[in-house]
Amino acid sequence: MFRYVTYRTLKSLPTLLALAVITFFMMRVAPGGPFSSNRRVPKEVRLNIENAYHLHDPIWEQFWRWFWGVLHFDFGPSFKYRDYTVSELIAHGFPTSLEVGLWAMFISTVLGLILGIAGALRRNGPIDYTAGAIAMVGLAIPIYVIGPIGQIVLGLHLQWLPIAGWDGTWPYKVMPILTLSLPNIAYVSRLMRGSMIETVRTNYVRTARAKGIGERKTILKHAMKGAIMPVVAYLGPATAITVTGSIVVETIFGIPGIGRYFVDGAISRDYPLVMGVTVLYGAIIILANLLTDIVRGILDPKVSYE
Amino acid sequence: MSDLTVPPPLGLPGEPAEEIPVGLSPFRASLRRFGKNHLAVVSIVILVLIALACFFGPMLYPEDAELGDFDNISAPIDLFSIHPFGTDEQGRDLLYRVLTGGRLSLTLGFFGALVSVFISIAYGSTAGYLGGRVDDVMMRTVDILLALPFIFLAILIKIVLQDSGLHVFGIAFDGPEASVFVAVVVTLWLTPAVIARGQAVTLRSREFIEAARAGGMSQFQIITQHIMPNSVNVVVVYSSLLVLEAILTESFLSFLGLGVQPPDASWGSLINDGAGKIDSDPRLLILPSAFLAAVLFCLNYITDGLRDAFDPNER
User: Fold this and answer.
1) What does the pLDDT average to over B291-314?
2) CA B288, CA B281: separation in Å to the nearest integer?
3) 3-class secondary structure for B249-299?
4) Contact B149 A278 (CB under 8 A)
5) Which pLDDT value is given to residue A237?
6) What ipTM was reported for this prediction?
7) The pTM is what?
8) Which residues of A touch B156 (CB under 8 A)?
9) Which of A76, B39, B270, B289 lies at 20 to 30 Å from A147 by C-alpha?
10) How far is CA A282 from CA A90, A286, B149, in A?
């Protein structure tokens, strides 16, 4: 087990490094340094400033210096939001993004599991068809279509929820969280339905039934253990979808999270900000995949520790 | 059942027996199987109709259609007027905008997928055929890239490329469309490359490849003339999914304001425009969304149909 965890961890290190290297060198090929502004500056002054920021050092030293900073959560100053460092912007937006993201992950897993199990146990019943319809919409229609349509229906016509905005209270959270969780509800429910249908046909579930422990216990205690594995394996990709989706949702609903800063930064060419968020979110996704692998290794005896 | 029934041919239990006439090539057999999937066939028809409308529909409009009709600003939907779906707040015909937007979205989607397929087959075939250390290095690189959060890197690639003023062979890669195109391709080619490589590995040990080698073909010739053509069929199953993902990536970037720039429009950017005006005019959102959703639904069903018909693992 220990070897497996170490191996998986070591395997994700090159990916993290590649993320940092690609991001850094993309930034370097971008034209115009931070100090090539419109204002004419004497050459000596510009050279002095550039030297102060080590722009004339060998490129590997520059990379190392930046990378060392990144390891300490120091992503440099933001170009667009003057007087702020990228780390300060991230620290400001991250709690909100994290809250929305975690709720979306939680709801999509729980709701997806319930819909999937219910659909599998009552195949071709009303619940199964409803779950199937939700899944089809969630899989085929991107959230930047679903979000605004939700705003029209729930916000404008029914007036149940505010259209956009954020003050940290629940009415403002409901629509963004539901929108963000819809694609994963769809995926999880499909996965769970398929694997539960297969699992209830297996011999060990038949044995459990034959023992007479009751349908409820058979499904929840026995079938569940085997059937949930594909969903566990999906948690990594689900995190990636949620993180990507949060950019869209924060833009649509005007939530002051990192996604908003990221999009604004990308439009106004705020490279340090874009790099910082890319590295941070990339690392989160890679770590989520690592954790998923480790959890799978612990739960699933079929995973070989190689 | 009576005793006289002929035992069903081998196949998955519970599936109706398939009657494949003798002498039908596997490809024709797959095509016939695909033809029986009505949902997929209908999807193809709808998709072709939408594509035809997007490419030829705008030609029915006068040449200055994109300038706007200032006598009919925010005209309502009236199917029998010159603006069947009305106009936006600048008097531009909505249907015209959505159709030209669709032209851009569909073109980027199809060509993005096409180029990704080509790159992935070339890359995967080379890695799979050469094998050994080259294969290790090439596929390890793909593994690492696959684990990266590609939508973020696509955004980074897109903005860096657009600022770079890069021109290669007279093609300007710094335009909004070209940079989106590159970002889409860079995001998409990885997974089919893995599939193509798997096919190349199995092909490598086949007799006809050995014969080609014995006949004195160079490695380059074998890869381009034998391995690559024979890897196409496995990737084709995947290609409609690539079109889908290419359209999604493009509209994602355009929705965020990082893709196609005004006055040009794609479905993504039109949805973005519309999302900002839902309280004044929901049509601006609903019309491009409906077209995008229809195309995505169709591509989903076509992908399912292709996989059922062509993927040998599914049979």
Assistant:
1) 80
2) 13
3) HHHHHHHCCCCCCCCCCCHHHHHHHHHCCCCCCCHHHHHHHHHHHHHHHHH
4) yes
5) 86
6) 0.80
7) 0.81
8) 23, 26, 274-275, 278
9) B39
10) 14, 6, 5
